[in-house]
Amino acid sequence: MPRPSLRTRSKKRVHKTLPGGKKTIHYKRGVSSSPHCHLCGRPIGGIPHLSPSETRKLDRTKKRVCRPYGGQLCPDCLKKALKQAARTL
């Protein structure tokens, strides 16, 4: 029986054959989704597609894109928002 932390269905079970011919189960964490734009839902480019624990280990410059609303909006939505803000001035 696997240890308690591996008894969850949130981990994928991968059946592997070892070099000696014995079969075993490896437990893998599922891949999380990539960051998306808050307005249109498209994936944001320039941000790596990693699990949250791996993303936490990155530098701040690699976690977000160097533009206003870098990690939240895609470039097209940012362009529309800036135009709308300029029109309301």
Question: Features of this protein?
Answer:
2 domains; alpha+beta; 89 residues; 2 strands
DSSP strand count: 2
Record the strand order, biggest sheet. Answer: 1-2
Unreliable residue stretches: none
Cα distance spanning the termini: 66 Å
**What's the number of domains?**
2
Order of helices and strands: EEHHH
Largest sheet: 2 strands, antiparallel
Helical residue percent? 25-40%
Form type: elongated
Radius of gyration, rounded? 20 Å
DSSP helical segment count: 3
SS content category? alpha+beta
Task: Give the percentage of residues in beta strands.
Answer: 15-25%
Overall residue-averaged pLDDT value: 90
If you had to describe this structure to a student in words, what would you say it looks like?
This protein has 89 residues and is an alpha+beta fold. The chain has two domains: 30 residues, no CATH class; 57 residues, no CATH class. The chain contains three helices and two strands. The longest helix has 14 residues. It is elongated, with a radius of gyration of 20 Å.
Give a summary of the structure in a few sentences.
The chain is an alpha+beta fold and 89 residues long. Helices cover 26% and strands 16% of the residues.
